[in-house]
Amino acid sequence: MKNFAKPGTFLPPQSAGAGGLTRMHHTFPRADASACPDKVGPIGRIAHPRECERCGFTLLEILLSLALVILVMVGLNTFIFSMGELWGQRSESRLLELHVRAVTRFLDQQLRTATLPPEAQASTQPGAATGTPPVAVQEIRPKNGGSDNLLTFELPAGCRLFDWQGQPALPDVICSLQVRPGQGLFLLWHSKLEKHFSDDPPREVLVTPLVTSMTYDYYDADSKEWQTLPTLRMGNNNQPETPQVLRLQFTYDKLTRESVISLVTPGQGLPDY
Fold it and tell me: How many Å from the N-terminal Cα to the C-terminal Cα in the chain?
């Protein structure tokens, strides 16, 4: 006859019959396999109680891992901040170069548009002398003062910078370039179709406040050399001559840049530098 007992209990001695020996049955407590499933012995008990302690991390291992994570984070922060400083030192120079390229490209497009037919025909501008090229020097009277000799050209369809203040945009716009100290490069403009074209001063729009000076390059065919002058060169008839090249000086803080714009006359080419 089999005896079933709960774990951890002792069974009373049972007799095996007359003259039989008395036997005592004992059941050993079973270990919980979920606590340490790999360390359960063959009879359901733990082989060694200290072996289950290896299932987790010790305090020393946790401290070492935290120290390594902190070192890695400090290194990443140092690298990121150093790269940010290097990028910040070059950002102003890069932005200035982008601005110089944009302004130079805009002016070059407008000046080239003025040299295309039919605007490229001579004497299309009001008051221009016979044989005047489409990009020439003329006497202009701005709003800020007296007359001045400015580089002048004509745009048949105007420009995207022009603000007609709610009025319909007019074609055949006469434009001039003027650099004012401490203010920048201005584009003066008014249409030939306006009623008071000859009496009213032209409108103004600021192209960029970073241009501090504009110089002019002339080619001397006799000496075959280029000359850079801060003012327009006067010709034999005491009239200012149109330069072949414009040089714009850009200044921002301690940074300076220079751009070059070639003035191409229809039917003529620029000599080699």
Answer: 121
